[in-house]
Amino acid sequence: DPMGQHRIVHPPRHSLGMEARRRLPCLPPLALTFLAFFAGALPNAAGAEGKAKVPVVKWGQKSDRLYLTIPLTDVTEPEITLEEKRVYFKGDSKGEAYEVSLKLLRGINVTESKHNINKWSVTFDLKKTRKEPCWKRLLRSTKTFAWLKKDHDRVYPQDCQTAKEHWRDTYFTRKLNGLDPSEGKPGRTDEPPTNTGPPDKEQEKIEWERKINEFRAKAVPRKSGEGKKKKKGSTKKTEL
After folding, report:
1. Edge-to-edge strand list for the sheet holding 57-61
2. What integer best gives the mean pLDDT of the chain?
3. I need a labelling partner for 170 at 20 to 30 A (CA). Which of 29, 80, 138, 239 fits?
4. pTM of this structure
């Protein structure tokens, strides 16, 4: 019996058809190895190659805009999606597949946002939904990612500081006027008063007293011991 003289390793029988199973004893060892390679090795290799890489994403901002740069050269078959709180990119560069989905910290205006693909990179110019202090981070997630980097060419500290001060002034102005601070929208001034003439002095006095009373109500009362000490000290000075 020739099968008793040679030790032949067969591929898994469930991966081959009925006709191939009947012909297995007649196949030489080299042909069986070749079949096993195509039956098992190739599908696994294809699955490994199908996984896309995450590209480097550089980001910067102003008080009213976001700037993203993906430094990939010669991008082919790009797929880009802009949503209110999500930016999606997929494309090939130099034979490698790349894909990234960015869930933003806050919303953007999709209709007034744009992107551009050139030979060296993919850039995004995104308009925020409102003018506000600069974001502390780009993504909603608080995790740190090695592929997400700050774009030092897109840093505008003066613009961010101005927006922060304007936001703070709007907040406290509305709060002192008895309005809801959360409804204030930086970048838009409140409606001007109907009376454009000189203010009434009596009305100014009433408004001033009202603000003083509000500050007094918010002030932290001093301890009784501290008040007595200061009072005694002031009496001694007057006696001298």
Report:
1. 108-117, 122-128, 65-70, 57-61, 148-155
2. 75
3. 138
4. 0.55
Q: What is the pLDDT of residue 133?
A: 92
- How far apart are the C-alpha atoms of 154 and 58, rounded to whole Å? 9
Residues, the chain, total? 240
CA atoms within 13 A on the CB side of 208: 7
Tell me how far the alpha carbon of residue 206 is from its chain's centroid. Answer: 47
Q: Is 57 exposed, middle or buried (0-12, 13-18, 19+ CB in 10 A)?
A: buried
The count of other CB atoms within 10 Å of the CB of residue 11 is 18
What percent of the chain stands above pLDDT 90?
Answer: 46
Which tens digits make up the pLDDT trace of 187-231?
443 444 444 444 456 677 777 777 777 777 776 666 665 555 555
Q: Is-contact 87 126, C-beta < 8 A?
A: yes
Helix (H, G, I), strand (E, B) or coil at 46: helix
Q: Minimal CA–CA distance to 133: which of 114, 105, 98? A: 105
Strand-pair partners of 127? 65, 109
Q: How far apart are CA 197 and CA 203, in angstroms?
A: 13
Per the structure block, which two tokens stand in for 128? 């925020």
What are the angstrom distances between the C-alpha of 229 and each of 90, 219, 221, 236, 238? 72, 20, 15, 11, 15
Sheet with strand 76-83: strands edge to edge = 76-83, 86-93, 96-103
